[in-house]
């Protein structure tokens, strides 16, 4: 199996934790005329979109008129919901068929050129799931983008990343837009979508190395490895769990170790004070706001003012209240499950590819170099040989691609200042 076919089979989805997509391959054949193969010879666009905004950006369909949309081959249903909207008076309410899948599509009167852009939608769901956007040409070949959706949230723009190529799609002649959600065996799932939009893609692949949880191994294992290749990373620390010194028992960074990471050029960001996931907000009670905002004071007091702008949702999970608090207090935040996103249409839900296994990270980096976009690779505790091997492979190959000019390594500040899209 060649590299492109391997990637298209769903490796990148697995990297990002999107295992739900693995069960949809049988249904894919239904909407692929000609049974296009996965030998993808399409050359990605190489134009410099960083210096010039493509014309096809902003809201493309606000779902105020659903007459142009249909449930493809009767797979699920679509209807207007005037009680929920991201903008305008309504959203599109999608429900799956008895097999737990919904597919809605819009056929365009004239083809559009998506060579320099990445699609996204505002969405929410009844339960956590994976949503895919397919942009198809007249032959049914397509480029597919994916992102997770969490339940019981307000409609919010999500940053989709390219995770699959089918056939040899002509990105300058896209004629069909399709949105797919697979709820598994749960035929009672519900999805709401609004504001189908496009954001610019980057001129070349961008990669960010991240380390979540504030573990001491980020200092003992990751720091010397990154220094060997003249790279820097970002560590998102739970500030209440930082140890005063090495005499204090625990597996988290000490105050001095955090300082040495900063001295080595690392960005020191927040992962909430406790580092616990923000999906069970009732357990925090009145402490929820302080858990999210107190790290800003700690970081600024320690001299990490730049890092105090950035937040990572522990486990990429959240509910409405912590999400709103992060929006109010941080410039950029990370939560999501997809590689190679475009400019951040929502800077508070920037995407991640987490914990790649040995061998997978090199495929992930190749994919980003080929298709562009921004891939943030997150590592957690570096506590066994497999994780260390994956990190070593990532850093070594990333350095090689950077030297060859195929990938640029960026920081959260560079993303916030240069790769956020606002209409």
TrEMBL record:
<feature type="region of interest" description="Disordered">
    <location>
        <begin position="77"/>
        <end position="102"/>
    </location>
</feature>
<protein>
    <submittedName>
        <fullName>Polysaccharide deacetylase</fullName>
    </submittedName>
</protein>
<feature type="domain" description="NodB homology">
    <location>
        <begin position="201"/>
        <end position="324"/>
    </location>
</feature>
<dbReference type="Pfam" id="PF01522">
    <property type="entry name" value="Polysacc_deac_1"/>
</dbReference>
<dbReference type="GO" id="GO:0005576">
    <property type="term" value="C:extracellular region"/>
</dbReference>
<feature type="region of interest" description="Disordered">
    <location>
        <begin position="21"/>
        <end position="61"/>
    </location>
</feature>
<dbReference type="InterPro" id="IPR051398">
    <property type="entry name" value="Polysacch_Deacetylase"/>
</dbReference>
<feature type="compositionally biased region" description="Acidic residues">
    <location>
        <begin position="23"/>
        <end position="51"/>
    </location>
</feature>
<dbReference type="InterPro" id="IPR011330">
    <property type="entry name" value="Glyco_hydro/deAcase_b/a-brl"/>
</dbReference>
<dbReference type="InterPro" id="IPR002509">
    <property type="entry name" value="NODB_dom"/>
</dbReference>
<dbReference type="GO" id="GO:0005975">
    <property type="term" value="P:carbohydrate metabolic process"/>
</dbReference>
<keyword id="KW-0732">Signal</keyword>
<dbReference type="GO" id="GO:0016810">
    <property type="term" value="F:hydrolase activity, acting on carbon-nitrogen (but not peptide) bonds"/>
</dbReference>
């Amino acid at each position: 199996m060649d590299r492109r076919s391997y990637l298209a089979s769903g490796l990148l989805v697995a990297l990002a934790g999107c295992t739900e997509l693995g069960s949809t391959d049988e249904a894919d054949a239904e909407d692929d005329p000609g049974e296009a193969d996965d030998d993808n010879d399409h050359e990605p666009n190489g134009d410099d979109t960083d210096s010039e905004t493509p014309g096809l950006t902003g809201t493309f369909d606000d779902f105020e008129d659903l007459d142009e949309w249909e449930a493809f081959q009767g797979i699920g249903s679509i209807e207007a919901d005037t009680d929920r909207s991201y903008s305008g008076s309504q959203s599109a309410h999608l429900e799956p068929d008895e097999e737990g899948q919904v597919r809605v599509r819009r056929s365009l009167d004239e083809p559009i050129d998506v060579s320099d852009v990445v699609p996204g939608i505002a969405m929410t769901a009844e339960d956590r799931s994976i949503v895919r956007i397919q942009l198809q040409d007249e032959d049914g070949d397509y480029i597919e983008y994916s992102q997770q959706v969490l339940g019981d949230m307000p409609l919010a723009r999500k940053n989709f990343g390219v995770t699959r190529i089918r056939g040899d799609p002509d990105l300058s002649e896209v004629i069909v837009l399709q949105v797919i959600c697979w709820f598994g065996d749960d035929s009672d799932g519900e999805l709401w979508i609004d504001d189908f939009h496009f954001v610019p893609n980057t001129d070349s692949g961008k990669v960010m190395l991240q380390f979540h949880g504030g573990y001491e191994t980020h200092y003992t294992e990751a720091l010397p490895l990154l220094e060997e290749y003249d790279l820097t990373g970002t560590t998102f620390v739970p500030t209440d769990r930082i140890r005063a010194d090495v005499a204090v028992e625990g597996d988290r960074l000490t105050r001095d170790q955090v300082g040495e990471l900063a001295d080595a050029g690392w960005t020191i960001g927040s992962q909430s004070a406790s580092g616990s996931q923000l999906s069970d907000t009732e357990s925090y009670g009145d402490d929820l706001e302080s858990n999210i905002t107190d790290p800003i004071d700690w970081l600024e007091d320690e001299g990490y003012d730049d890092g105090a702008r950035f937040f990572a949702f522990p486990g990429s999970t959240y509910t409405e209240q912590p999400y709103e608090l992060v929006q109010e207090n941080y410039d950029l935040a990370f939560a999501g499950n997809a590689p190679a996103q475009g400019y951040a249409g929502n800077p508070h839900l920037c995407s991640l590819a987490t914990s790649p296994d040995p061998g997978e990270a090199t495929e992930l980096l190749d994919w980003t170099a080929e298709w562009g976009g921004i891939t943030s690779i997150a590592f957690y505790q570096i506590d066994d040989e497999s994780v260390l091997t994956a990190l070593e492979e990532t850093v070594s190959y990333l350095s090689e691609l950077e030297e060859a000019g195929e990938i640029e390594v960026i920081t959260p500040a560079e993303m916030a200042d240069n790769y956020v899209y606002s209409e």
